[in-house]
Amino acid sequence: MSRWIEPVTLVGEHVKLVPLSFEHEQGLANAAADGELWKLWYTSVPTPEATGDWIAAALVMRDTLGAHPFAVIDTKSGDVVGSTRFFNLEAAHRRLEIGHTWYAKRVQRSPLNTEAKLLLLSHAFDTLKTIAVEFRTHFMNQQSRAAIARLGARQDGILRNHQIGRDGIYRDTVVFSIVETEWPAVRANLRMKLDTRSDALSD
After folding, report:
1. What is the dihedral sign for C-alpha 87, 52, 63, 18?
2. Which DSSP letter does residue 24 get?
3. pLDDT at position 89 over 50
4. Using one digit for the tens of pLDDT, what is the confidence trace for 158-187?
5. Which of 3, 86, 142, 183 has its CA 20 to 30 A from that of 176?
6. Element (H, E) at 132
């Protein structure tokens, strides 16, 4: 299968994004346990015992749909502290989505998350030459919505009754995007946040 996105490792000062594999299972289970993230009903963070199945599903998305899931590594400690993903790829239109993102509680609202977004967006716009990058989140996830807006993304709309959650509750999905003409300003803003350590981003 011809792939638009080839496996890549993205490295910064605070964070390293590496292709997800089963070797990250225990680290991801530990990360999810930091804050018991799976208890947030509007997220899809796996329980520690379901982490292997969650990774398997991510790799199926990679192999069948061309997605690129990452394990997020704290460069200072070497710990796996979360995961994120390029997916919903539209190579013909040079569009993609960044999502399936979650972090251990201890690194939320930290420079690590800001730098991860900078690395992902830089790869999308500067290397892959995307014309738009999309973000989606649950209508009820106010923290994620605020964080995406702070990136500089603009809200495109709300998809009502978009999905059925694991608990059977219907999900309204809020859609945001950054387009290529906005990228220089978004990049400058993220770099300023890293330089001043005034980060307040998480999703």
Report:
1. positive
2. G
3. yes
4. 999 999 887 888 999 999 999 999 999 999
5. 3
6. strand 132-138
For the chain, the first-to-last Cα distance in angstroms comes to 32
User: CA–CA separation, 128 vs 125, rounded Å?
Assistant: 6
Tell me if 127 sits within 8 A of 28, measured CB to CB: no
**The token pair that represents 95 in the structure block:** 């569009």
pLDDT in tens, 28-67: 999 999 988 888 767 788 999 999 999 999 999 999 999 9
Q: Are the C-beta atoms of residues 172 and 160 closer than 8 Å to each other? A: yes
- Alpha carbon separation from 21 to 55, 113, 174 (Å, rounded): 7, 21, 29
Assigned CATH topology for domain 10-196: Aminopeptidase (3.40.630)
Residue 61 burial (CB < 10 Å; 0-12/13-18/19+)? middle
